[in-house]
Amino acid sequence: xxxxxxxxxxxxxxxxxxxxxxxxxxxxxxxxxxxxxxxxxxxxxxxxxxxxxxxxxxxxxxxxxxxxxxxxxxxxxxxxxxxxxxxxxxxxxxxxxxxxxxxxxxxxxxxxxxxxxxxx
Amino acid sequence: xxxxxxxxxxxxxxxxxxxxxxxxxxxxxxxxxxxxxxxxxxxxxxxxxxxxxxxxxxxxxxxxxxxxxxxxxxxxxxxxxxxxxxxxxxxxxxxxxxxxxxxxxxxxxxxxxxxxxxxxxxxxxxxxxxxxxxxxxxxxxxxxxxxxxxxxxxxxxxxxxxxxxxxxxxxxxxxxxxxxxxxxxxxxxxxxxxxxxxxxxxxxxxxxxxxxxxxxxxxxxxxxxxxxxxxxxxxxxxxxxxxxxxxxxxxxxxxxxxxxxxxxxxxxxxxxxxxxxxxxxxxxxxxxxxxxxxxxxxxxxxxxxxxxxxxxxxxxxxxxxxxxxxxxxxxxxxxxxxxxxxxxxxxxxxxxxxxxxxxxxxxxxxxxxxxxxx
Lengths: 120, 374
Known about the structure:
Structural class of chain A: alpha+beta
Largest sheet of chain B: 10 strands, mixed
Radius of gyration of chain B: 20 Å
Oligomer: heterodimer
Largest interface: A-B, 18 and 22 residues
Largest sheet of chain A: 3 strands, antiparallel
Strand content of chain A: 25-35%
Order of helices and strands of chain B: EEEHEHEHEHHEHEHHEHEEEHHHHHH
Strand content of chain B: 5-15%
Shape of chain A: globular
Order of helices and strands of chain A: EEEEHHHEE
Number of strands of chain B: 12
CATH class of chain A: Alpha Beta
Distance between the termini of chain A: 40 Å
Number of strands of chain A: 6
Radius of gyration of chain A: 16 Å
Shape of chain B: globular
CATH architecture of chain A: Alpha-Beta Complex
């Protein structure tokens, strides 16, 4: 029997979420499901654009170091916290892998965890 | 260790803050006032909120979530028992915010304010020199008294905020007011936009209101140029759609411009409960009286509150219904929107005018294919 297991090293943006970039490199993330809007800093936008299911956490950190100045040593922890907060808000999820009972990988699918719709 | 709050003690919409419009009179007669109090010259007096009612309201509000009060007016420091009111606020450990014209900020009274929790005082100053300020404020000699009041606040260790309402007469003094504010040692300056409510309507009819293009242009100048030239925190009271995201999310700048309409209640000088000061000029937004009605009933059962709780933000219409910021902006000022149109859900006038002129920020509009019918 197979089951889907999230690969927490491969975050993926929720495709229904809209990114609206502004003149100062900040952006608004808009979730049509809930009507909620979130502000993204320029670094947040940089990360968001790499949540495509193919970039790993390590890949993103590497690109951050290549493209941004003064990246702090704690960047990986910050990145994981940031992605976790996106996941908790329903704005992102993880690439999933189908495994057999013994844990053998068989195929990949992109999946965003379904969340409850907010009523307000 | 986890701490679990007892939900039975909390409502879904805590009453965080009460705006007390303490006095029916004011010692200035400002041309643009949206409350329209009576002019209280020396020797005259007008009704002020009864101290026992004030005490009773506070006691009833604390179980509903009350953590702060705002004292405004009229002129709140004109209240004949203002010292007792300040002592009561301190004893109840409530955060204090005051909106004043500064004339009565004596060293003695300022010390009582400073002794309260998180004291914040906003002082109106509508010009950088006496002639302009006193033209707006309607009383000769008040400019110097206001500056003295600000100095007393600063001496007491407070970091007051200066509030300037911008209009045709004083728009060219905005930078000079910031420089004056710097020299006085205040903490911040806020620019309010003239509202077409009560006396403000006369200002609009008299041509003192600025056109939307100029208001937006001034906002951009304040946010991008004037702010960069001063150590003061500057706020321009425009709806959130016009604020840079960096200001909203990093500087707490959006927070100070949001009306937390779902968590506030107004008390007028006669003891009436109201949505806010709008109850002074819009009678249907008065919801009972503190002498006869229990606050809990008013807060939990008033149809207007229930309607707002059910409808904000998804019932907003016009450009507010299409705006990405509606969940945090909350219509900017629902009371003002209602006052102009008798409709809580009407789009905010500033945003509507900007939209009609093609000046509303495109990036703040929900894409057409992602809108849900309201």
